Amino acid sequence: MNADGGGLRIREIHARPVVAPLTTPIRTAAGSVDQAPLLLIDLVTDAGIVGHSYLFGYQVFTLAPLRELVHALGAMIVGDPVAPMDFGRKLRARMTLFGARGLQGLALSGIDMAGWDAVGIAAGVPLATLLGGRPRPLAAYNSLGMIPPDEVPDAVAQTLHDGFRGLKIKIGWPSLERDLAVVRAARRALPDDVALMVDYNQSLSTNEAVRRGRALDAEGVTWIEEPVPADDVWGAAEVAELITTPVQLGENFGGPLEMAHALRARACDLVMPDPQQIGGVTGWLRAAALAEVAGVPCSSHIFIETCAHLLAVTPTCQWIEYLDVAAPVLAEPLKPVNGTLTAPARPGIGLSWNEQALKRYAVA
User: What are the start-end ranges of the E strands in the chain?
Assistant: First the structure.
């Protein structure tokens, strides 16, 4: 599918960096995240329609180069039709010699998402509808950081109070015994029909991932996420082969081709693309097709507003991750209802900025 934006053309693209607070800092085995460095993108059309998207930079120092990349790439497509697949091909052709991974890949994804938002707004329909589906309730899991065993019961109680039927906690403590203590505390506190996922955030060697994975096989875990470094496809494949708990990968797939390589290598049993890594809406559609062909369940990674639309049209849709990084800067944040997330019925993705908050959280 390639939308043409109803004849719209791109007038300009600009981006604003902000650093928003996170309600709860996220501790991982690779470090802690206590704020959300965001780049807010506006794709302005000749008809005055503005498509919105945002990028999550993880570290504040990424915002300046991301902003420059978005502006430079945007300048290359000023005057072009608002047709994301077409202007995406044009921009990627300019990157043939050095590739479209890393920050430049994120910038491309941000422009792509803003373009699709503008197309949806021009058509007067939500993105999910534009893509041939409809906004619908999606099963969400509550996504938390590393939690000591004594804090697990309170986290579980809040998760259940909010209606979630799934909970993900990050592990990768210095010892396997600590990992097991946390997992067992969570599994004891959760009803049997509530899923428990764990995330190592790439912190283990292959041998250690196999050792810990085998120990977790008997603990009622739904998946083990990113046990080894994201670029170690063969290490992940060895882990997936030698343990019985499903291995989840995807948030660091730098485009559909990397996902195809992982699936071909049998490096994972489940996938969870990230919109800014996989190539925006366009990249997600291709990734969802790969998941369907492989018969692999597909979940999401952050970007709840966009993923609520994309998972609604994903044939092997499984879970949407509830980890909200943009709420402080949005005029109408997306909220879970009884443990589900539903894309808004507003045209496009449904993003609109809280301009007062943007002034408060703006960075130079």
Answer: 10-28, 31-45, 50-56, 138-146, 166-170, 195-199, 223-225, 247-249, 270-271, 320-322, 340-341
Cα–Cα distance for residue pair 308/135, rounded to 1 Å: 7
Phi/psi at 126 (5° precision)? -60, 155
**In this prediction, what percent of the chain has a pLDDT beyond 90?**
93
Q: How far, in Å, CA of 40 to CA of 23, rounded?
A: 19
Q: What is the pLDDT of residues 251-291, one digit of tens each?
A: 999 999 999 999 999 999 999 999 999 999 999 999 999 99
pLDDT value at position 2?
47
Q: How far apart are CA 127 and CA 351, in angstroms?
A: 11
CATH number for the segment(s) 129-354? 3.20.20.120
CB atoms within 10 A of CB 244: 11
Which pair of structure tokens corresponds to residue 25?
Answer: 């800092």
Answer whether residue 1 shows pLDDT above 50: no
**Range of lowest pLDDT (22-26, 325-329, 349-353):** 22-26
Give CATH 3.30.390.10 domain extents, the chain: 5-125+356-361
Alpha-carbon gap, residue 13 to 72, rounded angstroms: 9
Cα gap 339→253, rounded to integer Å:
27
* Domain 5-125+356-361 coded CATH 3.30.390.10: yes
Please name the residues in contact with 84: beta carbons below 8 A apart, sequence gap of 6 or more: 2, 3, 112, 115, 116, 119, 280, 281, 282
| Active-site amino acid positions | 170, 301
Neighbours of 147 (CB within 10 A): 19
Q: Which amino acid is at 14?
A: H
Q: Which pair of tokens denotes residue 95? A: 């990157």
Write out the residue limits of the CATH 3.20.20.120 domain(s) in the chain.
Answer: 129-354
DSSP bridge pairs for 27: 32
